[in-house]
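Final report, closing paragraph on structural work. Over the funding period we assembled a curated collection of sequence-structure pairs, and we close with a single example.
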Amino acid sequence: MPEFLRVFLGFGIRLLTACLIVFIYIQIFGIIFSPFFLLGLFLFFFGVPCSIAMLGFAYVLERKHNPWYGPRKLTAEERNILQTGTFRLAGYVAAGEGAVSSEHVAKVKEYMQVLTSDSVRRAELFRAFEEGKAGGYDPEPDCLAIRTAVHDGRVFKHRLVEFLIEVLFADGVMQPGGYSRLASVSFNLKVPTYVMERLIRQAQAIAQFKSFFNAGGFSSQDRFYQSNSGGQNSYVPHNDIVNAYKVIGVPDGSDFETVKKAYHRMMRKYHPDRLQAQGVSEEMMRAYTEKAQNIQQAYDLLKRHLNN
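Its predicted structure, as stored:
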């Protein structure tokens, strides 16, 4: 069932229907008494705020009583389907690179450590990765099973695609074969191509941006931009400024107001409370916390560069 339909189950439909009936009744009542102009006019316009109040009442009751409203945690079975399918798909896209490198395997094992400390479970997930690497593996059934397990939840599907992109970029470059398989998986997950492309650009920028900070905030590139804030830290390689814009998700050279709006929009997206409200697991929240930190670093760098 699509995620956006959940909130209309249970009490929701009946309460909204009742509000509509009240609204129509008061409108008709006003028309009936229209010969008494003032009374009819009062009843007619009274129907609008009354209906709004009833809608608010229905919203409160639905949040309180509708078992399908609000955060929806995955069951153990659904979580197993998501995790196992994720690692099979990781093996599938990694094999598209021509040869699965030690960097690909290291990234997969790193994510396993985030998901579980159980060595038996890790072994199961690694076997799933090996199954995906094998020739003849068809990703479509796993994609369909994952979509069903997460109820087509966008945040789960996007995180899965992001992880697959991280695997492909583990050795520093994405090969055409890996890209082709990633596109096939995204299509079967019903993740739009433009979303996949945006996530690729952002992941590539974050990877380069992280190397910039791991090197102490500087790199050996020759082209530097200097902000007006002064001090050694104000000197930033041009390519890292470009990457910072990509991390924030705005065009290169955007003004500070544009950067600020995009930054706040992205930080709301990755805020722990918002993620929890969407039923995201603690493991996924830890992964998104790291991404939020990268976004924060990019914003701070652009803020200094734009002298704000």
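The radius of gyration is 26 Å. Residues 217-235 have pLDDT under 50 and may be disordered. We thank the funder for supporting this effort.
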